[in-house]
Design brief:
Layout (H helix, E strand, L loop, with lengths): L3 H13 L2 H8 L3 H15 L4 E4 L2 E4 L1 H28 L3 E8 L1 H4 L2 H11 L3 E8 L2 H9 L5 E5 L7 E7 L4 E4 L20 E5 L4 H12 L5 E6 L2 H9 L5 E3 L1 H7 L5 E4 L8 E6 L6 H22 L9 E7 L1
Parallel strand pairs: 3-4, 3-5, 8-9
Antiparallel strand pairs: 1-2, 5-12, 6-12, 6-13, 7-10, 7-11
Helix pairs in contact: 1-2, 1-3, 1-4, 2-3
Length: 317
């Protein structure tokens, strides 16, 4: 009956070419290695090594056996290395879904930086509407989801990011671009590009204008804020959108201004209520929060958004 220690001694002799070197590699005595090899040969009923002067040489049977043994050891070493990488958060696969506001520019850029530091990590990045993202997380198709609030599902835990405001966007050369901050009255009679209901952002925008008795000219409705930004940058209308999409269109001539009173743009971070986050997902989420704070400071100036970024941990809904 062979045992793992005999196989380990055999592999050491094959790797080092001698009993003495194998003993040093295994940190045991030379007689102990000789005894293990002898017992292995007896158990297998094979001659594995022949003496040639002061050295030993493997037989053809030993060479054939070593090919099988080495594959097994490589497999074990790969398992150990994978476990070490997982512990060190250097390998694994993460499935993430995001709403278009994050999934078009901000999140892919963050993913690229995240992967650059983790060459053995793979990420599957999906984009869709918030209800579909909720379903993907609830059914285990994605480990993390980034969606619009509010979100409710019995199988999903929600954490909300507060502290980012929506922004006003104008075409290049618009007279209102001379103002540092825009308010509801600035939109009176202006062509307005709106997101389609029902979204919390659309509700908040409509409520603000209704409270200030402002009539906009509602020329276009679109599901995607990137469409609104593209049309405004092309010279048509004004809008109020999330800051992530607005930033991506600044290089295309879009003019961005703060809007008062502040309209919050909240993000819901979704994860399973049944399965804990992997270590890679925890790292990803922590880095995402840091990246969001950097975005706020760079885009609005430190404190320019008027509120600190806050992660509000929800309960199981």
């Amino acid at each position: 009956m062979i045992n793992p220690r005999q196989i380990e001694a055999f592999r050491a002799v094959m790797l080092t070419g001698g009993i003495t070197a194998a003993a040093e590699l295994l940190n045991i005595s030379q007689p102990a290695v000789s005894r293990l090899i002898g017992d292995l040969q007896y158990a297998l009923k094979l001659t594995l090594f022949e003496r040639r002067g002061p050295r030993i040489a493997p037989t053809s049977e030993a060479i054939s056996l070593y090919q099988v043994v080495d594959r097994a050891f490589v497999g074990l070493e790969l398992i150990e290395q994978t476990a070490r990488d997982l512990t060190a958060r250097r390998s694994g696969t993460l499935r993430v879904a995001a709403m278009p506001a994050l999934g078009v520019g901000f999140l892919p850029r963050y993913v690229a930086r995240f992967l650059a530091e983790r060459p053995r990590v793979d990420i599957a990045l999906r984009g869709s509407t918030s209800p579909i993202i909720l379903d993907w997380v609830a059914t285990g198709q994605c480990e993390l989801g980034f969606a619009h609030t509010p979100i409710e599902h019995a199988a999903v835990l929600t954490e909300k990011i507060h502290g980012l405001p929506a922004v006003a966007i104008l075409p290049p050369g618009h007279p209102l671009a001379a103002k540092d901050v825009l308010g509801p009255k600035d939109f009176e009679g202006e062509s307005f590009i709106s997101t389609t209901p029902p979204t919390l952002l659309r509700y908040r925008i409509d409520t603000i204008f209704a409270d200030h008795d402002v009539s906009r000219v509602m020329r276009v409705e679109t599901q995607l804020t990137m469409n609104a930004c593209a049309m405004v940058a092309a010279g048509h209308g004004m809008s109020i959108v999330d800051p992530f999409t607005a930033q991506d269109y600044v290089p295309h001539g879009l003019v961005v201004r703060p809007f008062e009173p502040r309209i919050g743009f909240d993000i819901a971070i979704l994860r399973s209520a049944q399965v804990p986050l992997s270590m890679i997902a925890e790292d990803f989420l922590a880095g995402f929060m840091e990246e969001t704070v950097r975005f706020r400071d760079n885009f609005f100036g430190s404190g320019g958004s008027g509120n600190a970024i806050q992660l509000v941990r929800g309960t199981e809904l």
